[in-house]
Every structure is written in C-alpha cells, then in structure tokens.
Amino acid sequence: MGKVIVMTSGKGGVGKTTTSAAFSAGLASRGHKTVVIDFDVGLRNLDLIMGCERRVVFDFVHVINGDARLNQALIRDKRLEHLYILPTSQTRDKDALTREGVERVLTELREQFEYIICDSPAGIERGALMALYFADEAIIVTNPEVSSVRDSDRILGVLQSRSRRAEEGLDPVREHLLLSRYDPERVERGEMMKVDDVLEILAIPLLGVIPESRSVLKASNVGTPVILDPQSAAGDAYRDAVGRFLGESLPFRFMRPERRGLFQRFLRRSA
Amino acid sequence: MNILSFLRPKSTLPTAEQAKERLKIVLAHERSYASAPDYLPRLQNEILQVIARYVELEQDKLTVKLENFGSTSRLEVNIDLPKTAASVVAGPASQADRKSDDPDAAADEPATDARAVL
Ligand SMILES: Nc1ncnc2c1ncn2[C@@H]1O[C@H](COP(=O)(O)OP(=O)(O)O)[C@@H](O)[C@H]1O
Ligand SMILES: [Mg+2]
C-alpha cells in the first residue's frame, strides 16, 4: 500500500512544486515507484518543472470525471524508470476536484505506487484541502520569512483538524519541516531567521534545509528536477532530505556560509 | 532561431533560451484553447472516446493540436494505430515513452498514422 505525502505551505512561491519535483525524482532514483500529482487545478506548472509539458493529453480531472483511465493519464518520466507524473487540468472550474474523485484516484494509485506525492496549491481553499485531506505524511515547505512561517503554522492546524486522519481519529499525519531558500550569509548577518528560530516556533521535526541556489532557476528553465543536477547545492540538500525521509541519519549541510576562496580565508584568519 | 543554433546540440543552448522555446510552444497551444468555442473540450473528449473504442489510447501515442487561422481554427488529432488486430482494446495500457510526432520513435513497431482534421 502506497504512502500519500503532501507538499504544503499555505503560502505560494515558497518551493512546493520545486520540492515535489525533487522529492519524487529522488525517491524514484532510489528505486521506489513514485508518482507526483499536480493539485493546482487551473494553474498547471508541475509539467513544466518536470519537463513533460508537451506530452499531456489526459489529466487528473479527466480521470476524476471518467473521461480517461488512470493509466492513460499517467506520464512516464523519460529519465527515471520508476517515476510517473499525473498532470492537472487547466480548467477554471473550481469544483473539478471532488473528494470522492480524488479518493478513488488515490486508492488506485496506492495499489500501484510506493509513494504518491501531492503538490498542493497555495492557500487553504478547496485545492489545498483536497491535496492534504488523504495525506499520511506532510512536508511543510517553509521559507525563513515571517509570512511563510505564519502560514505554515496555519496549515499545520488544518492538517491536525481537517485531514482524513484527524476526522477519522486515526494516527495523525506525520509532519516534516523543509526549510527552503535558506541563505546562510544573510542568516550570519542577522538579516534572516536561522533554522533554530523557525524550529522553535513551528516545533516539528526538521527534514531538510535547502539553500537559496541559482541552480533551481536553471533546472526549471530546462524542465529537470534540481535533484538530478549533480553540481547543485540545492540538489545535494534535497538528496539528503530524501535520505532522511527514508530513515537515514545524515548531518545537515549548507547551514553555514560557503567556504570562501583561499585568499579571503587567509584575510579572515589574519584579521 | 539563428543558423548557429543548428550547429550545436540542443542541450548546450543557454538554459534561458531553452526556457523561452518551451514556453513559446506550450503557450501557443494554451492560447489557442483559450480562444476556442466552449464546446471544444467536450467535442475533443467525445472524439477520443470514440477512438478509444477501437484502440488502446496511450498519452504518448496521441497528439491533439488546435491551430488558429483567423476566424477559424483546426483541431488535429493524431494517433498511432497498431497494424496488428491483437492490440485492439485489451489489457492495461502500458505507457510507451514516446510522442507520436517524434520521427525517430516510429520505427520499433508497425503503426499507421490516423489523422482526423476537423
Ligand atoms: N532553493 C531555491 N533557491 C532559489 N530559488 C528557489 C528555490 N526554491 C524555489 N525557488 C524559486 O522560487 C519560486 C517558487 O517556487 P515553486 O516551487 O514554484 O513554489 P510554490 O510551488 O510553493 O509556489 C520559483 O521561481 C523557484 O525557482
Ligand atoms: Mg506550486
């Protein structure tokens, strides 16, 4: 039986889609059969980030409406044999995702896949509620910034009261914090909250710290999950986070400013 | 696109240029749908349902394109039809990882190209 994991945040633009792409590719590259679903109906973007935008004919909403079978809508990733993408629809119909429809699709996916990653839209409206409702685990994507941390706190409240696990009195959704767009230089200068500050406020286990990194834009330009870029610090940080998710205990990296060049280090030491 | 871009492999294009190319293609497609009649999604669905009665529809063996020509537009549905009768709607769809308009992919199994232009 597959596990349903939601990437959620409340706030938009914090890195949910980047994380969904990275995590699903990371799990699949370790041999776990994984599907990543775009829940952002009307604002489809996961297909672009995964680089499969030209291959979409059928989508999530077609499957929910019975206009296509699940296997017709699943797009097999061209790079990773265990990775599939279920793109969303561009429809403006807000009610396209019904709870029964989503449940039916997720139940079918649980039979075929080990991990089902749900890329949530921003907000706490229908789309976001649908994405988290059936979750077994939640990865809260947060930036070290006041509005993002507050929205993460809101979404934790929603998970604890309005998810299926909460409503049915089952074990609660397992929560993980993924702190993204972390800039150690600014943290050092006192301009950005540090990891411990955010942890103190949200008080959920830390899964990873993803540094602010230029390679994320490059990866999205070409439609490749950043975790597949071996040169990228963000890619390394995502690989570590996936490892931790799978139970490995790995030291946290990229939390201090990058080592400077030899010359600058010499200057600092002599200063 | 300039002449030089033919001389270097696609992967060495600056990533920003790749982003622009990808966006142009996907937006041309989406814009044509945005200006299409309201019944288009239903029409397209029904066409695909009919085709699905005869062949196993796989996303990668199917392209649907809408092109605008002034006051009219053209819906083009391209499907790879397997020549063997055996593959007519049976068993679970196994996703083949190719696009029907990818010329190098067409060789591994005999297929006819069915094209419906409406
Ligand atoms: N670690 C990072 N470093 C730099 N830019 C990032 C990072 N993570 C995400 N971004 C950028 O932030 C923006 C929003 O990311 P996205 O994943 O689309 O967020 P969401 O899905 O939460 O709206 C994108 O432009 C993305 O490239
Ligand atoms: Mg997103």
From TrEMBL, chain A:
One of its GO terms (biological process) is negative regulation of cell division. GO terms for molecular function: ATP binding; ATP hydrolysis activity. Keywords: ATP-binding, Cell cycle, Cell division, Nucleotide-binding, Septation. One of its GO terms (cellular component) is cytoplasmic side of plasma membrane. It holds the Pfam family AAA_31. Residues 3-159 form the AAA domain. ATP binds at K11, G12, G13, V14, G15, K16, T17, T18. InterPro entries: AAA_dom, MinD, MinD_FleN, P-loop_NTPase, ParA/MinD_ATPase. ATPase required for the correct placement of the division site. Cell division inhibitors MinC and MinD act in concert to form an inhibitor capable of blocking formation of the polar Z ring septums. Rapidly oscillates between the poles of the cell to destabilize FtsZ filaments that have formed before they mature into polar Z rings. Belongs to the ParA family. MinD subfamily. Interacts with MinC and FtsZ. This is Septum site-determining protein MinD. It comes from Candidatus Defluviicoccus seviourii.
